[in-house]
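Why do we bother with holo predictions? Because pocket geometry can differ from the apo form. Keep that in mind while you read this record for iron/sulfur cluster.
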Amino acid sequence: MTFFIESLGCAKNQVDSEYLIAGLEARGLRWVGSPGEAEIIIVNTCGFITSAKEQSIQTSLSLKNRFPDKKVIMLGCLVQRYGAELQREMEEIDGFVGLDDRQSLWQLVSSGVQGEAEEGSSGAGASGKDLVTSRRRFLSFPGSAYVKVAEGCSNHCSYCAIPLIRGELVSRRSDEILEEIEELLGRGVVEIVLIAQDLASYGRDRGTRELTKLVESVLGLEGEFWLRLLYLHPDHFPWDLLDLAVSDSRLLPYFDIPFQHASKPVLSRMGRSGSARTYAALVEGIRNRIPRAVIRSTFLVGFPGESDEDMETLLSFQRECSLDWVGVFVYSREEGTPAYGLPARVGRKVAEARKRVVEQAQIAISESRLDRQVGRTLDVLVEEPVQGKRLYLGRAYLQAPEVDGLVVVKADTLEPGRIYPVRIERRAGIDLEASLA
Ligand code: SF4
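The structure, written out:
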């Protein structure tokens, strides 16, 4: 029996999809790379915000329309949040599986599979604990792997549905994470990307924040590799990480810190304690300690009560701090979240216009930050060749997977998944062009 997984949403969902592939293959099914080849199609959905919910529903329906004779199963966050409604309204879909309901997935897919694998060996538990060491296939480019260090979140930002979907913060045991990373490095992975809903809260459910200690133990491992950290909440940024990044270049000086906004009144209604002043001090502190540090962030515009003055605060913060990369999102009103009932809602058109203003302003900023790299020699992790050209696409320390620009390397034969030193020759938009050093 063959299956295909359409993994929607965030990097954390992608990791879940990779564990699922391991679990299903351990049960005798075979993963294929396209829905056309598969007998079972699984859609790992996202239920975070309206646009993601719509994409999950449309993707599932269009797959079922394209392949009416195949089994199409929806699972993950959207089902966890709206299981009953989906079952009622989407009769054409063959199955619905929530986040902590792996058993029903095995039952759904097991009809037609010869010879059941022994119980428990293929991840009957939702924790995925027994799946950790058996992740075999990666949906990322070669050489790079996400490692999820915790599930859920206890920050309860007022606009966020994730705690409703994934529950309170549950941090994995550090020895388990280390074992997984050792296994990945042993299999030739050269970039480890640590992720969680809020990486900076790792261990908090056990009483203390343990991210720096975890990073220290990872850096205790032998060998050349990159360690990248994503999603560090600014209100509890672990400053001692900077010392580690200064002393060990394997910890990339790339800091993904979702500020969400810069206006203090807006941030406090979001359930966040920062301000333009404290966030600017954070950026300055990082850059003073590590001048080549790269900072990515996200801004959320259109939050209830957001005034023109609040927007001006955000735009002047953006100008003043010149962050390297910024993603901008429009507030999505999510039932069950504390912000759902807030008055003074901002109209969609206004919010979208504000998003465009911030995005437009960011282009010039990102480009000027990138100009600093021209003439430098950087290590680049090659991801893939450009078909029909003597060119390869890759990423340097300043570029996270899937969200930032790329480095285009002129070369005859490079091996995807390997790191090569290159000389940056010029910037082209938000990409860099290079040749082998
Ligand atoms: S830190 Fe992130 S995941 Fe956690 S509640 Fe806030 S926005 Fe949601």
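Residues 131 and 290 are 37 Å apart (CA to CA).
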